[in-house]
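Exercise 7. Predict the joint structure of the components listed below.
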Amino acid sequence: MGNKEKGSNAERELLKMFSASSWRAVRVAGSGIGEESPCDLIAGKGNQKFAIECKTSKDKKRYLNKSQINDFLVFSEIFGLEPLIAVRFNREGWFFINPKDFGIEDTGRLLAISLEDAKQKGKRFSEIFSQSEDFSDLIS
Amino acid sequence: MGNKEKGSNAERELLKMFSASSWRAVRVAGSGIGEESPCDLIAGKGNQKFAIECKTSKDKKRYLNKSQINDFLVFSEIFGLEPLIAVRFNREGWFFINPKDFGIEDTGRLLAISLEDAKQKGKRFSEIFSQSEDFSDLIS
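Solution:
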């Protein structure tokens, strides 16, 4: 299975988790043929709206291309979405991480997070998405 | 060329128009395998953010499925996007129409707009997207 296919499978796995938690989530397909998508998923519920970049890792550290993440942050800003990077470490599951919690490596070209930091700084799906912090639907 | 392919070509044509006008636009790919996308494109620039449903028509009237458009409006609302329906009539080009300007037909099951009404109530690409109404970037 190629990297692209693995990435698509990971995105679909997350989509199912959102659907199961009554979030509205869709995949973002990029802006042209062959062009990289600026963001993998957008997910919303009540007043909460997230842009999500999905990554998987077989190792204990995940590296990201800084220019790609900058593009993702610009996209999030334009559409008023809160940016989150979702990393699935093998046998550890998904962590949802604020882009600011990534370290900078390789003289600024790469961002990185270790599994250890992901556990400490990241959140689990249920911590962010399962409990609705927005009860406005109930009282309006 | 099938309907699905025609639809994709129309979406790509619009994407190019947005890119040429320095808008950020992406395709929305739906939330699962085989599932209909709730929206074709999202486009943003400055403080303006639109959800766009793309349709083409060989005839002088375009019908839409009301339940599909309801889904589109819910999606737009969740993500804080202004909904617009883009209809390309053969040899007439694109019209950008407020969903409220469609008439209701077939005892509420369908929405429809004639080419004549599209010309009267709809806007051309350049009227909405070419002139930036947002100069905040210049003064901040």
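Discussion. Residues 3-20 of chain A form the longest helix (18 residues).
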